C-alpha cells in the first residue's frame, strides 16, 4: 500500500521557536568544529551527532586508516566531554573494560576491597576494532550501553551522563576476529560506513597532515554548561511532533522486514512479500522503529521544524536498520545487501506514481 503524495510532506512551521533554531545552530557549530580536522564525510559526522543527541550508540565500519579514531577524538573535543579509547584485542578481558575489585591496605593495617574503575567510566568511549575481541569481552559493553551502569561483584555503579559508545570494526575477515552477535548489534542506534575519500578530499588530507600547520578543535559548549545543554537538546528531540500517518509508515517499514509477519499481506505486493521471504532470515526489532522515530525527529529539528515528515524518516531508515536485518546465504549468493532490501521496501511503500 503506497502512501498518498498529498500527505508526503509537512510544511515548515513559520513561527519556529527560538529553542528549535538554537538546536540547529548548536548542532551545526559542533559539525563545523569537527570539520576543522575531518575532511569531507559531512553526512557521517551528521549521523553520529544525530545518534548522540538521540541518546544512542554508533557502530562504524571501515577499512584501517580512514580516520575513524581521529573522528571520535575531534567529536569529544568539540563537545567538551571526557574521552577514552579502548583497543579491543583477542586477549582483552571484561575486567579490562569495566574495572575490577582490588585488595588494598588501609592506614590501620586492615585490608579491604576497593573498586578500581576501568576505561568505560568516561562520557565518550571509542571501542576500537570491537570485532577483534571475544564475545565474552564484547558482552561487557552490553549492560553499560543499555543501562548506563556496570555491575562488579554484585555492586552496581552508575555511569556519568552523557554516555556514548562509538565502536569501530574492520570489514576485513582476519584471523582472530569475532563477528558481533545479533543481540549486541541491536544495541547500536546506527551502523555507519566510512567511505574512501574522494580525489579533492584526499588532496586536502595530504596537505593538512604533512605540514607544520596545526588545526585545533574548540569546545562549542562552556565547561559548566555542556551537560545541561546536551540534556536540553535531547529533551527537545523527544518533544518533536509526529503524525499518525508518518508513524504508520515507519511501523510498516519495520514489519515489511519481518518475513513471517501476517501484516505484510496488507502493505506489500505479492512479489515484495516473496522477495522478503526469499532473502531475509530475521527482521528488525522494535528498537529499529524507535531509532527511526527519534532520528527523524532530529532531522526535522535540523530543518527548523517541530514536526516530522516522511522524508525525514527516509533519510535515516538505512542507518537505523541495516544492522538489524539478518539476510540469508541466498541473499549473499545473489549479492543482495540489507541496503538493497531496505531501498526496495521504501520504494514499495513510497509515493504513488
Q: What can you see in these coordinates?
A:
This protein has 353 residues and is an alpha/beta fold. The protein folds into 2 domains: 19-238, 3-Layer(aba) Sandwich (Rossmann fold); 240-348, Magnesium chelatase subunit I, C-Terminal domain (Helicase, Ruva Protein, domain 3). The protein has helices at 18-35, 42-53, 68-79, 95-98, 135-138, 140-147, 182-185, 199-209, 226-239, 244-256, 264-267, 270-279, 286-302, 310-321, 329-333, 338-349, and strands at residues 58-61, 83-87, 99-105, 111-117, 124-128, 149-152, 155-158, 164-169, 190-193, 241-242, 280-282, 307-308, 326-327. The chain has a 5-stranded parallel beta sheet with strand order 2-5-8-1-9. Strands 3-4 form a two-stranded antiparallel sheet. Strands 6-7 form a two-stranded antiparallel sheet. Helix 14 packs antiparallel against helix 16 (338-349). It is globular, with a radius of gyration of 22 Å.
Task: List the main descriptive attributes of the protein structure presented here.
353 residues; two-stranded antiparallel sheet; 13 strands; 16 helices; 5-stranded parallel β-sheet; Rossmann fold; 2 domains; globular
Summarize the structure.
This protein is 45% helix and 16% strand.
Any low-confidence stretches, pLDDT <50, length ≥5? 5-15
Amino-to-carboxy terminus distance: 12 Å
The shape, in one word, is globular
Order of SSEs, N→C? HHEHEHEEEHHEEEHEHHEHHHEHEHEHH
CATH topology (fold) name of the largest domain: Rossmann fold
The CATH class of the largest domain is Alpha Beta
Strand content: 15-25%
Amino acid at each position: 500500500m503506497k502512501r498518498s503524495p498529498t500527505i508526503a510532506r509537512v510544511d515548515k512551521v513559520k513561527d519556529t521557536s527560538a529553542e528549535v533554531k538554537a538546536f540547529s545552530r548548536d548542532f551545526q557549530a559542533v559539525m563545523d568544529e569537527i570539520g576543522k580536522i575531518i575532511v569531507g564525510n559531512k553526512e557521517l559526522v551528521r549521523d553520529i551527532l544525530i545518534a548522540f543527541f538521540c541518546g544512542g550508540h554508533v557502530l562504524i565500519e571501515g577499512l584501517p586508516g580512514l580516520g575513524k579514531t581521529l573522528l571520535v577524538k575531534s567529536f569529544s573535543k568539540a563537545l567538551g566531554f571526557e574521552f577514552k579509547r579502548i583497543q579491543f584485542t583477542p586477549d582483552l578481558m571484561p575486567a579490562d573494560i569495566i574495572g575490577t575489585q582490588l585488595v588494598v591496605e588501609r592506614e590501620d593495617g586492615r585490608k579491604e576491597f576497593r573498586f578500581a574503575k576501568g576505561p568505560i567510566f568516561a562520557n565518550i568511549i571509542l571501542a576500537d576494532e570491537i570485532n577483534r575481541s571475544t564475545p565474552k569481552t564484547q558482552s561487557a559493553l552490553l549492560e553499560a550501553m543499555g543501562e548506563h551502569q556496570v555491575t562488579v561483584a554484585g555492586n552496581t555503579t552508575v555511569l556519568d551522563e552523557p554516555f556514548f559508545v562509538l565502536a569501530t570494526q574492520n570489514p576485513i575477515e582476519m584471523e582472530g576476529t569475532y563477528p558481533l552477535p545479533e543481540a549486541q548489534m541491536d544495541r547500536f542506534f546506527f551502523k555507519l560506513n566510512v567511505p574512501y575519500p574522494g580525489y579533492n578530499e584526499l588532496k586536502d588530507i595530504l596537505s593538512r597532515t604533512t605540514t607544520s600547520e596545526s588545526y585545533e578543535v574548540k569546545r562549542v559548549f562552556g565547561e559548566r554548561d555542556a551537560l545541561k545543554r546536551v540534556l536540553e537538546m535531547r529533551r527537545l528531540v523527544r518533544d518533536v511532533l509526529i503524525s499518525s500517518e508518518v508513524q504508520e509508515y515507519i511501523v510498516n517499514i519495520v514489519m515489511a522486514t519481518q518475513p513471517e509477519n501476517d501484516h505484510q499481506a496488507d502493505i506489500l505486493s505479492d512479489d515484495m512479500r516473496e522477495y522478503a521471504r526469499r532473502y531475509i532470515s530475521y527482521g528488525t526489532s522494535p528498537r529499529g522503529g524507535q531509532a527511526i522515530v527519534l532520528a527523524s525527529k532530529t532531522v526535522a529539528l535540523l530543518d527548523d521544524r517541530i514536526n516530522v515528515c516522511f522524508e525525514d524518516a527516509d533519510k535515516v531508515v538505512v542507518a537505523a536498520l541495516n544492522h538489524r536485518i539478518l539476510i540469508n546465504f541466498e541473499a549473499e549468493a545473489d549479492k543482495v545487501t540489507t541496503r538493497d532490501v531496505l531501498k526496495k521496501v521504501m520504494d514499495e511503500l513510497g509515493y504513488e506514481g
